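Need residues for this backbone.
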């Protein structure tokens, strides 16, 4: 690699929403920006989390210098423990809140000593990280302490926006630093890696304060219990709900392990202010009338074991909803979670609660820039080349159109995929190669050991069921001692068919043994094929068939 060349390789977050991870590589070393995870879709049966494939980094572990975290959301920091375990990274950089939440996650995995945590301070100006001069620029987002990252080297100056929006009235007063972005634009940005999540949406996204104003309109007028569900990392949203609860003389109970943990971390670091006497434990709720409490809880995405889902299905030990209660779902369903969220809403409504969500009340705003804000960013930094990231392909395409309308030459707009190798040099940016990349599944305690064949089997089982044929052979005359037993799970109406399958299995087995076919594998194969044909002829289904031969 030439002295003035930089290789940029997205390992996740391109052509998808989630698992953001981008490699910045020079001869002197590698710096990684973000280490995110994604949540499984319906087809990922039994999978808990999805991580980027870091084998490219594992093969170059001796050259990895640091990972930089732009903010504390799971799709940007959730894979950090797995990255440290698989690759080993000497330094982790992030702002104070980002490091606080990341530190808690590393502690859970027993990895507190795995890397040196270093605080990123936008006000300090550039600092040397690996082979780059790195600067952090404050941006507004739905979690406090988010930053954009500038990486400078002889190859050029790269701006990674992270997740951001132009919020003129943020809850903490810390706006996106448009002044510094404009200065960087004047100095020259050679490549912009820009958040594309809302590139298709016209206009500007609303300020976070709009949600607080909605809480102010809703909460004081309600008589029953009020439940507010949001992401556990949405510190500003929690603060606004707490502020309104205090004004309405309501006590606040925090329900859900991740939300309690994040609230404590944010309080300790000074990002949330709440009087001690306002907070009560969930098991104290029964001591107060319904109109005297507000419950902050997890479960805005309909997660099966989350607080709100358990409450909706009357499965929570400390919290229930009744007629007259109000549930505010202050989040938008992540793509793929819509059905689970709708199920929770229906169950809550069935219990008599009024459910307010973003489709019927202004109880949520996005943390990602809309099209006009993306135009503003492009106008501020005037990049020579643009690489849309963080979004499905249609979002990347919409962002690229905005870049072209802003004057970026079509040849300098890079629509990439995970694994694309982008080379930046003084001659410009271009896609030159691709590396093998994919996903790593987390299934229970196993990381990376769920193969495609396992998912295919799970899908097969979920659709057509399973049939187990247990046959006993041997004895003095080598014939079956009894009719084979057929065990069916997940087959519709197996009753009469079960008898027919048992008779067929018995006939096949006796015929084979009469012909002196005794090899176990052959017996299993013939049993499998004959029963599979019988079931398909009768039902049109293809269940998984597992013949078991027991020799006496």
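Answer:
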């Amino acid at each position: 690699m030439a002295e003035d060349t930089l290789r940029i390789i997205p390992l996740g977050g391109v052509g998808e929403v989630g698992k953001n991870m981008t490699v910045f590589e020079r001869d002197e070393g590698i710096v990684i920006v973000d280490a995110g995870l994604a949540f499984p879709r319906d087809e990922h049966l039994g999978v808990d989390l999805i991580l980027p494939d870091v084998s490219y980094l594992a093969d170059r572990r001796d050259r990895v210098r640091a990972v930089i975290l732009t903010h504390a959301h799971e799709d940007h920091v959730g894979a950090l423990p797995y990255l440290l375990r698989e690759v080993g990274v000497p330094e982790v950089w992030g702002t104070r809140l980002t490091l606080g939440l990341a530190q808690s996650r590393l502690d859970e995995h027993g990895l507190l000593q795995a890397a040196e945590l270093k605080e990123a301070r936008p006000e300090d100006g550039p600092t040397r990280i690996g082979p780059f001069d790195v600067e952090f620029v404050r941006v507004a987002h739905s979690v406090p302490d988010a930053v954009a990252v500038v990486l400078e080297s002889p190859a050029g100056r790269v701006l990674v926006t992270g997740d951001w929006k132009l919020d003129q009235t943020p809850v903490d007063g810390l706006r996106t630093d448009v002044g510094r972005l404009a200065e960087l634009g004047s100095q020259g940005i050679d490549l912009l890696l820009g958040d594309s999540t809302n590139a298709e949406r016209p206009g500007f996204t609303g300020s976070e304060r709009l949600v607080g104003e909605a809480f102010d309109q809703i909460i004081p007028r309600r008589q029953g219990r009020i439940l507010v569900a949001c992401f556990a990392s949405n510190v500003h949203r929690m603060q606004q709900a707490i502020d309104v609860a205090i004004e309405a003389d309501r006590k606040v109970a925090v329900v859900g392990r991740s939300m309690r943990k994040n609230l404590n971390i944010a309080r300790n670091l000074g990002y949330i202010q709440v009087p001690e006497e306002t907070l009560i434990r969930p098991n104290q709720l029964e001591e107060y009338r319904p109109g005297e409490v507000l419950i902050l809880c997890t479960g805005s995405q309909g997660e099966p074991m989350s607080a709100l889902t358990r409450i909706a299905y009357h499965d929570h030990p400390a919290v229930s909803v009744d007629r007259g209660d109000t549930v505010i779902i202050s989040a938008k369903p992540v793509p793929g979670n819509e059905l689970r969220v709708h199920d929770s809403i229906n169950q809550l409504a069935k219990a008599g609660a009024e459910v307010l969500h973003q489709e019927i009340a202004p109880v949520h705003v996005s943390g990602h820039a809309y099209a006009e804000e993306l135009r503003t960013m492009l106008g501020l930094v005037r990049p020579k080349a643009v690489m849309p990231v963080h979004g499905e392909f249609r979002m990347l395409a919409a962002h690229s159109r905005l870049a072209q309308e802003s004057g970026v030459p079509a040849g300098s707009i890079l629509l990439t995929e995970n694994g694309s190798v982008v080379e930046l040099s003084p001659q410009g940016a271009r896609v030159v190669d691709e590396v093998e990349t994919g996903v790593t599944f987390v299934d229970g305690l196993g990381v990376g050991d769920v193969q495609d064949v396992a998912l295919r089997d799970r899908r097969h089982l979920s659709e057509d069921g399973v049939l187990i044929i247990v046959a006993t052979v041997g004895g003095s005359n080598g014939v079956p001692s009894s009719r084979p037993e057929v065990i069916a799970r997940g087959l519709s109406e197996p009753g009469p068919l079960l008898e027919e399958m048992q008779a067929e299995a018995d006939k096949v087995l006796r015929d084979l043994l009469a012909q002196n076919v005794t090899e176990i594998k052959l017996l299993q194969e013939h049993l499998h094929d004959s029963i599979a044909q019988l079931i398909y002829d009768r039902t049109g289904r293809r269940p998984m068939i597992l013949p078991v031969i027991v020799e006496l």
